[in-house]
Write a structure and sequence with these properties.
By secondary structure, the chain is α+β, with helices and mostly antiparallel strands. It has 2 domains: 3-124, Alpha-D-Glucose-1,6-Bisphosphate, Chain A, domain 4; 129-198, no CATH class. It has 5 helices and 12 strands. Strands 1, 2, 3, 4, 5, 6, 7, 8, 9, 10, 11 and 12 form a 12-stranded antiparallel beta sheet that branches. The radius of gyration is 20 Å and the shape is globular.
Length: 226
C-alpha cells in the first residue's frame, strides 16, 4: 500500500504539552444536509501521546459521499482517520500529517484554527531546489524527475522517467532551464522507493508500515527542510 504524508512548519514554537491540552478539548460538530438527509459531522483529535520531543495522535473527521443505487443518489457518511505528529527538530516545530496532500492541507488548516485561533500559523514546509537536487544525487536509481520554473517559452514543466537519470545529458540540460520540483528515488539508507516534492509531500511506494514511514520522514526529510 502506498503511504503518503505532508510536512508543515508551525511558525510559533510552542510547548508540546500545551498543544496536547488544546487538542484534548478540540471537537467540532457541523450540521449538513445531503440529498435531503441530515448529518452531523464531527472533527476531533484522539489517541494523543506526548513526550519531550513528539506529540502524536489521530485526526478523525467525517464526510459524506454520494453513491448511485438503482437510479437514486444515496448519501453515505464516512469517518477518515489521519495519523499526525508534532515533532521538535533542531530549533523548529514540524507537523506531519500522514494523509494525501489535499486532506493533509485541510487538516493543517483545522489544526491552525484549533491551536492558534487563526489560519496561517501552520504553513507549508519547503525544501530549497539545490537541496532537493543533492537529495536526488545522493540516493540511488532515480526513476522520475519533474522540473518547474522552466525558462523555455510555452513550456511550464519538464519531466524525466527511467533509470540512472542523474547521469544523462538530458538531466544536465534540464537543470540549465529549470529546477527539480519532484524526485522519485530509491533511498540509499532505507531502500524505499520514495517521492519528495519541494513543498514536502512525501510518498512511499515500497511496502512498509506507518511506524517505519514515520522514521523515514523524521530522519530523511526533516533535514532537507530549509
Amino acid at each position: 500500500m502506498v503511504l503518503a504524508a505532508k510536512v508543515f512548519l508551525v511558525r510559533e514554537k510552542t510547548e508540546l504539552g500545551v498543544l496536547a491540552e488544546k487538542l484534548k478539548t478540540f471537537r467540532v460538530e457541523q450540521e449538513t444536509r445531503v440529498e435531503e438527509v441530515d448529518f452531523s459531522l464531527v472533527s476531533e483529535a484522539k489517541d494523543l501521546s506526548v513526550s519531550r520531543s513528539i506529540l502524536e495522535g489521530t485526526f478523525a473527521f467525517d464526510d459524506v459521499f454520494v453513491v448511485k443505487h438503482r437510479g437514486k443518489a444515496v448519501p453515505i457518511p464516512r469517518t477518515y482517520e489521519a495519523p499526525f505528529s508534532f515533532e521538535v527538530f533542531g530549533e523548529r516545530l514540524f507537523l506531519t500529517i500522514y494523509e494525501k496532500k489535499a486532506r493533509a492541507n485541510n487538516i493543517a488548516n483545522e489544526m491552525s484554527k484549533a491551536l492558534f485561533m487563526s489560519l496561517g500559523e501552520v504553513v507549508e514546509a519547503r525544501i530549497k531546489p539545490e537541496t532537493l537536487k543533492k537529495f536526488h544525487e545522493d540516493n540511488l536509481e532515480a526513476k522520475i524527475l519533474f522540473f518547474d520554473g522552466i525558462d523555455l517559452p510555452n513550456i511550464s514543466k519538464l519531466s524525466l522517467y527511467g533509470e540512472g537519470l542523474g547521469t544523462t545529458s538530458l538531466y544536465s540540460d534540464y537543470l540549465t532551464h529549470g529546477q527539480i520540483w519532484y524526485a522519485v528515488v530509491r533511498s540509499r539508507k532505507y531502500g524505499y522507493v520514495v517521492g519528495v516534492t519541494r513543498n514536502c509531500v512525501v510518498t512511499c511506494f515500497s511496502k512498509t508500515d506507518i511506524s517505519e514511514f514515520k522514521s523515514y520522514v523524521r530522519n530523511e526529510v526533516f533535514p532537507l527542510i530549509g
